[in-house]
Write a structure and sequence with these properties.
The chain is mostly helical. It contains 4 helices and no strands. Helix 1 packs antiparallel against helix 2. The termini are far apart.
């Protein structure tokens, strides 16, 4: 279309320069005027098309901005929910870790208490054996060994020791009796 208008302008300009007829010059002038109006209208059409393109692009941008503005609170809500879930998980895990650590401490304290009780029992047992072995008289072996009769560690040994002490006491009595009979 631009080429056609350009050819019309060239023909009108040629007619203006080469023609001497007033009517032909007038028609050529009108033709140039019409070609200029067509060019103006074409420029207006191009400007309008450009405005429409800009308007469409602006509308798309505006729609995108509105969509983002709409999604921002939703996205924020998801991020906050994720943060809460993560913090809840971390809290429960730290509580489990604290509970496990407290359980380990209780077990360590119980083990230490048992070790101390065992050490005290060992010392008592050693003292009882020392007292029994050092004594030549009839000793209160039953009383001393009774303390250990319920001990899981020394009950069997306490029974054997009591039996051997009782046997020793019985033998000592028999000896004393036989010496007493021999003297009579």
């Amino acid at each position: 279309m631009d080429d056609d208008v350009q050819r019309v302008k060239e023909a009108a300009a040629s007619a203006l320069t080469h023609s001497e007829d007033v009517e032909a010059v007038t028609k050529a002038a009108q033709l140039l005027k019409l070609a200029s109006e067509i060019e103006n209208q074409q420029a207006q059409v191009r400007k309008t098309e450009s405005d429409v393109q800009d308007s469409i692009a602006h509308k798309k941008t505006k729609d995108l901005k509105e969509f983002i503005a709409l999604l921002a609170p939703v996205f924020t809500t998801f991020v906050l929910a994720g943060t809460l879930v993560l913090q809840s998980y971390q809290f429960s895990r730290s509580e489990r870790d604290k509970e496990a650590e407290a359980q380990q401490q209780r077990e360590a304290a119980a083990l230490q208490a048992k070790q101390q009780a065992d050490a005290a029992e060992d010392a008592s047992w050693a003292d009882a054996l020392k007292l029994l072995s050092g004594s030549e008289k009839v000793s209160p072996a039953a009383v001393l060994l009774k303390r250990f009769s319920q001990s899981p560690r020394y009950s069997e040994e306490a029974r054997r020791t009591a039996l051997s002490e009782d046997q020793a006491a019985i033998n000592a009595l028999r000896e004393a009796e036989s010496i007493g009979e021999g003297a009579v």
